[in-house]
Design brief:
alpha+beta, two-stranded antiparallel sheet, elongated
Length: 88
């Protein structure tokens, strides 16, 4: 359930509070990124380019989101790596 509320302060922006389980879906650039993202607890492989992360609350979801993105970005299957490799 998402609850909308306003806070008076510096930004005066509307904020949303998420109660309950949170599920985020990610579309990554390569299959290698998706495979690395699957190592984060709570992550599930989707298609070749998507992964889903599920958490009990918004705080854990934020931590999982960072884990999925950082581990995914650390992977590499770039074509430029193969293109610049010496011929065998």
């Amino acid at each position: 359930m998402v609850v909308h509320f306003s806070v008076e302060g510096v930004s005066r922006r509307s904020l949303y509070k998420i109660n309950g389980e949170v599920e985020l879906a990610f579309t990554l650039l390569s299959a290698a990124e998706v495979l690395m993202a699957a190592f984060v607890p709570g992550s599930v492989l989707g298609t070749r380019r998507t992964a889903t992360h599920r958490a009990e609350n918004a705080v854990d979801s934020g931590r999982g989101r960072l884990g999925v993105l950082f581990l995914g970005w650390s992977a590499s299957d770039r074509i430029s790596d193969w293109h610049n490799a010496p011929a065998s």
